[in-house]
Amino acid sequence: MTEDEVDRTETIELPVLTTERLVLRPLVTADAPAMAALANDLRVAEMVASIPHPYSEDDALDFIASVAGHPAFAITSRDEGRLMGVVNLRPCSTPGAAELGYWLGHDYWGEGYATEAAHAIIDFGFRQFGLPLVEVACRAVNNASRRVIQKCGFQYIGTGMTRTLAAGSVATERYRMDKRLWQAIKAWGRS
User: Fold this and answer.
1) What is the pTM of this model?
2) Residues of the signal sequence (predicted)?
3) In whole angstroms, what is the distance from residue 100 CA to residue 91 CA?
4) DSSP secondary-structure letter at 14?
5) Angle in degrees, 0-180, between the axes of helices 179-190 and 113-129, rounded to the nearest 10
6) H or E element: which one contains 24?
7) Which CATH superfamily hosts domain 3-190?
8) H helices within the chain, ranges in order?
9) In the prediction, which pLDDT does 12 show?
10) Rounded to an integer, what distance in angstroms lies between the CA atom of residue 2 and that of residue 94?
11) How many other C-beta atoms lie within 10 A of the C-beta of residue 37?
12) Is residue 93's pLDDT more than 70?
């Protein structure tokens, strides 16, 4: 995302995005206790570069403040409204692009929720912000996240090392998807 696109997010109200099983709504400070309860799990923190361990309510409040004005959503269940995790798009080093980030509490792993949330925010990013490109990374040992990335249609671009707050420097895989590829994937899915 360029600075103009970042500035534009500050002037718009983020919508609520709905999927078959989820409601993605803008994060609010009242989400901090539930976020802390979910993210204060070493299994979660070890897989997400930006999550320290232990993870406190203050950490959650800091994160919520840091994403204000950016597309960052609470992943909630459509039936009960309970917080399950977070999905967001944030500026990255590639001009005009955004980086996808997501995490779920351990109890919600393996149910397809991350893929469902990622699809919704990717589509939102391409439509709302006119992004030309979305990038994403995962730990090389995170097979579940790699599968989410593959199911979304991202293309592998390489490996590297990333410094994480909970696990130190770790091997990561990087992926990207341009808007044309996303549109083709969506059109193919409707055929």
Assistant:
1) 0.90
2) none
3) 9
4) P
5) 120
6) strand 22-26
7) Gcn5-related N-acetyltransferase (GNAT) (3.40.630.30)
8) 3-11, 32-39, 42-45, 57-66, 113-129, 143-152, 179-190
9) 58
10) 9
11) 14
12) yes
Q: Are strands 98-104 and 168-178 parallel, antiparallel or unpaired?
A: unpaired
Q: Is the distance from CB of 75 to CB of 83 less than 8 angstroms?
A: yes
- For residue 157, the one-letter residue type is I
Q: Give Cα separations from 50 to 9, 22, 101, 189 (angstroms).
A: 22, 24, 10, 33
Q: How far apart are CA 8 and CA 91, in angstroms?
A: 13
User: CB of 89 within 8 A of CB of 1?
Assistant: yes
Where along the chain do its domains lie? 3-190
DSSP 155: E
Q: What is the DSSP letter of 6?
A: H
- The 10s digit of each residue's pLDDT in 44-71 is 999 998 899 999 999 999 999 999 989 9
> What is the C-alpha separation between 91 and 112, in angstroms, rounded?
26
Helix (H) or strand (E) holding 98: strand 98-104
When pLDDT is cut at 50, 70 and 90, the band that residue 148 belongs to is: very high
Higher pLDDT residue, 5 or 41? 41
